[in-house]
Amino acid sequence: MNHKYLDLAFKYAMKAYKSNEVPVGAVIVKDNKIIGWGYNQKEKNNCVLDHAEIIAIKKASKKINNWRLDGCDIYVTLDPCPMCASAIKQARIKNIYSALNNFDDKNSDLVRKLLKKDKTNPEVNIITNIEPLKSKKILNSFFAIKRDK
Amino acid sequence: MNHKYLDLAFKYAMKAYKSNEVPVGAVIVKDNKIIGWGYNQKEKNNCVLDHAEIIAIKKASKKINNWRLDGCDIYVTLDPCPMCASAIKQARIKNIYSALNNFDDKNSDLVRKLLKKDKTNPEVNIITNIEPLKSKKILNSFFAIKRDK
């Protein structure tokens, strides 16, 4: 865990914020090198798939020309949704470092179960609530503006 | 439920088979029109994201220029994995018609939970094991060849 990558994930989250997207950012690191990054672009691209983590995985796989992101870590500003958690696991990413535990408890519980070892993939470790106040501040500010509109 | 769309999903599964990919196909239908389709291309594209359902969702969202696939059905030759199930739900697809229940019981149970209503998305109905023998035959043949190699 290196805090500078989480800081970078926050920079990407702010790019989402400025583009009027739910502000979430992600950075993928292998051997201390950034191989993928992304921020939420669901509204711009009009596609539910374009979460920060999915975009980062796509970039990382392309970068190393391999769907197996063995030995990689992903830094995220918010715990992944089930779609992203399952993608992270199938990509064999080793660790998730997350700034904030997902507020939706039901999905949070599912995500924990999802990340466990199964028939085809090893377990993904998740270390969460590393920087909850910063992440909450950005998300709350975003949703407050949305509500006011 | 219209069986011709499941037949078409099987045709796409066979395209995956012939390209040496785990043979799974998907078709998305809205108002009796096909708006998306896909087959597994994970190995070719070197990316865990390129499951049949994800490719079909991407196509459908582009086709109707909307991430909300309200009122759509998805026909699949195998129950979705958690990544695809969560994407289907977030895209607000109404029904999943699946030829075969997933053999991995642990994920199958998780997928059922995933498809239930949550804070942001309505429940997705799943009707499965519509044509299990055909789907199993294709999958078993594929994995038998893989084992022999």
The oligomeric state is homodimer
Unreliable stretches of chain A, pLDDT < 50, 5 or more residues?
Answer: none
Indicate the percent of residues in helices of chain A. 40-55%
The whole-number mean of residue pLDDT values of chain A reads 95
Our count of helices of chain A gives 6
What attributes does this structure have?
149 residues; 5 strands; alpha/beta; homodimer; globular
How would you describe this structure to a colleague?
The structure is a homodimer of 149-residue chains. The first copy, chain A, is α/β, with parallel strands linked by helices. Chain A contains six helices and five strands; from the N terminus they run αββααβαβαβα. The first copy, chain A, has a five-stranded mixed beta sheet. In chain A, β1 (25-30) and β2 form a beta hairpin. The termini of chain A are far apart. The relative contact order of chain A is 0.16. Chains A and B meet through α3, α4 and α5 of A and α3, α4 and α5 of B.
Summarize the topology.
Two copies of one chain form a homodimer.
Chain A: H1 3-18, E1 25-30, E2 33-39, H2 42-45, H3 52-64, E3 72-76, H4 82-90, E4 95-98, H5 105-114, E5 125-127, H6 132-148
Parallel strand pairs in A: 3-4, 4-5
Antiparallel strand pairs in A: 1-2, 1-3
Helix pairs in contact in A: 4-5
